[in-house]
Amino acid sequence: MKRLLGLLLVLGALIFVSPGCYTLSGTAVPPALTTVHIDFFENDAPIVVSNLSQVFTEALKERIRSTTGISIVTGEGKANMSGSITGYNYAPVSIQATNPNQAPIANAEVLTITVRVKFVYDADKKLNFDQSFSKTANFTGDINSQEQALIRTIVKQLIDDIFNKAFNNW
């Protein structure tokens, strides 16, 4: 019985590990990719929120730390990620007139954050990318009272997309 259980465990492990890669929490990373350098993502958007660069950069690092076995290094890594926040804006998404004699008013708005990311992994250049990622969140009322919560929501969505592009497309 112990032998059968051991065999099942080994077979189960082989199913989840593809040749040449190891799998962690849904990610497949080549064994040679042991370190990554993450540059600070400067906020180059026309509207600058003082803590957005820090929040974004730290969230990206934390996602890599918590989901992979890759070490984040301060110098050159086996892979390098850089970029900037290129867009931060909010605009009305729906217009509603309260009555026919009044001008329409906005009853909802959307916050959009766009980030340009360059990922370079020299061992396999076909995995490199340089692209923009953009996410939105709808809100009503005053932006100032909800801005930080909206930023956290959007940053999480952006990090998911960037992480999947960098570490799930092997």
Describe it.
This protein has 170 residues and is of the alpha/beta class. The chain has a single domain, classed as Double Stranded RNA Binding Domain, CATH 3.30.160. 31% of the residues lie in helices and 36% in strands. Strands 3, 4, 5, 6, 7 and 8 form a six-stranded mixed beta sheet that branches. A two-stranded antiparallel ribbon has the order 1-2. Helix 2 packs across helix 3. It is elongated and about 65 Å long.
Sequence-ordered SSE layout with sheet pairings:
Blueprint (H helix, E strand, L loop, with lengths): L1 H15 L5 E3 L2 E3 L5 E4 L3 E2 L8 H16 L3 E3 L5 E18 L8 E17 L7 E11 L7 H21 L3
Parallel strand pairs: 3-5, 3-6, 4-6
Antiparallel strand pairs: 1-2, 6-7, 7-8
Helix pairs in contact: 2-3
Give a brief outline of the structure.
This protein is α/β, with parallel strands linked by helices. It has three helices and eight strands; from the N terminus they run H-E-E-E-E-H-E-E-E-E-H. Strand 6 and strand 7 form a beta hairpin.
